[in-house]
Amino acid sequence: MTGDARTDQELALALKEGDHGAFETLVRRHQGRVYAAAYRVTGHREEALDVAQESLYKAFARIGTWQPTGQFVPWLLRLTTNQAIDHVRRRNRRHFERLDDAFGPDSEKTAVGLADLSTERLVHAAEIDERIRKALVRLSESQRTVFMLRHYEGLPLADIAVTLGCTVGSVKVHLFRALRKLQAELGDLR
């Protein structure tokens, strides 16, 4: 079914009932967003592809935990963000030099339109990107999830609250604390 007109909610419910075709449609619709969420945390193309694949597998395996009271996409993106953070933590425990670090600027940076920047600006942008990723990992899970869903995915506070099963006020508190921590951590970048 390439032109499936069902909503994400309807597809997720169908998947819960065993319709594997619904999952294929959900993957086609959202694999780009899943990859983008993974890339924002990992910062590397290959790692983001691995995390995206793991996340989609987990979504399929854990669809029974998704509740129709919450939106499917925020649930999927939260699962992806958590998977990516776990991946970064495991990577940081291992000490190795990635080939892309050893041989120059990441090729994916060129792909996102940074090819025309000078080498100095590319290096500076890569340093800032790395500092932001490290700062995000230092946030609590709730703060990081709220921040990512709000600022990277653009979800309204009410949708985030439903996804996390809390109040909008609680979402605002987590977001405020996340922003305050990030400002303290990255204040010298101004």
Task: List its salient traits.
190 residues; mainly alpha; Rna Polymerase Sigma Factor, Chain: A; 2 domains; 10 helices
Give the topology string: H per helix, E per strand.
HHHHHHHHHH
Helix coverage percent? over 70%
Q: Mean of residue pLDDT? A: 80
As for the CATH topology of the largest domain, it is Rna Polymerase Sigma Factor, Chain: A
Relevant CATH superfamily of the largest domain: RNA polymerase sigma factor, region 2, helix turn helix motif
What is the number of helices? 10
Counted up, domains total 2
Number of strands: 0
Distance between the termini: 49 Å
CATH architecture of the largest domain: Orthogonal Bundle
Large-scale geometry: globular
- Determine Rg (CA atoms, Å): 18 Å
Tell me what portion of residues adopts beta-strand conformation.
under 5%
Structural class by SSE content:
mainly alpha
CATH class of the largest domain: Mainly Alpha
Mind describing the biggest β-sheet? Answer: none
Low-confidence runs: 95-115
Tell me the layout of helices and strands.
Layout: H1 8-16, H2 20-42, H3 45-61, H4 72-93, H5 99-102, H6 107-114, H7 119-138, H8 141-152, H9 157-164, H10 168-186
Helix pairs in contact: 1-2, 2-3, 2-4, 3-4, 4-8, 7-10, 8-10, 9-10
Summarize the structure.
This protein is an all-alpha fold and 190 residues long. The protein contains ten helices and no strands.
Report on the structure:
The protein is an all-alpha fold and 190 residues long. The chain has two domains: 1-96, Rna Polymerase Sigma Factor, Chain: A (Orthogonal Bundle), CATH 1.10.1740; 139-190, Orthogonal Bundle (Arc Repressor Mutant, subunit A). It has ten helices and no strands. It is globular, with a radius of gyration of 18 Å. The chain starts with 7 loop residues before the first helix and ends with a helix. 27% of the residues are buried.
